[in-house]
Amino acid sequence: MINTLMSPKDLIETNYKADAFNKELKEKQKVVSKGTLEEADFMKLLITQLKTQDPTKPIEDKEFITQMAQFTSLKQMNQVSEAMKTLAKEYAFMKSLGLVNKVVVWNDDNGNTFSGLVQSIRVKGGEAFIVVDGKEISPNKVSEVFAIEPEKIETVANSTPNDKLLNLKNYNLSRF
User: Fold this and answer.
1) SS3 assignment for 63-116
2) 93-175: which CATH topology?
3) Among the four residues 42, 62, 96, 136, which has the most C-beta atoms within 10 Å?
């Protein structure tokens, strides 16, 4: 039989060494906080807890079940988060697709206002952009959308690109 009990003197000495080691770690290492606990972090904590537990006092079933339930919840929340990111990208794509053959008005980063006919959409890095006169524009910058009669699409598309803002009244467009 293995004796797992420590004498009071050995216990004090071990605690002193552990405290000194932890203090040294804190001084030498810069701890970078991610602000979130990921699955791998949770598993490391659980495994470390299982490895370092007192063999005479193992984790009670209730504690272990609670920790496994928390791990499962964390995993499911991560999956929901990833699904929401994918859904947001798909929504942005569909929103952009709905702007094709419509006249849009947008502001650039300098506050200048432009307008033009949306010719197509382009996806880069998972983000959708509308293409107007060969320029890629984020749909988030669009401030107005106008429907255009199909027979006027070519006229608007061929308007001079030097005009910063199309004379929207000349085309009898309907505002969304």
Assistant:
1) HHHHHHHHHHHHHHHHHHHHHHHHHHHHHHHHHHHCCCCCEEEEECCCCCEEEE
2) SH3 type barrels. (2.30.30)
3) 96
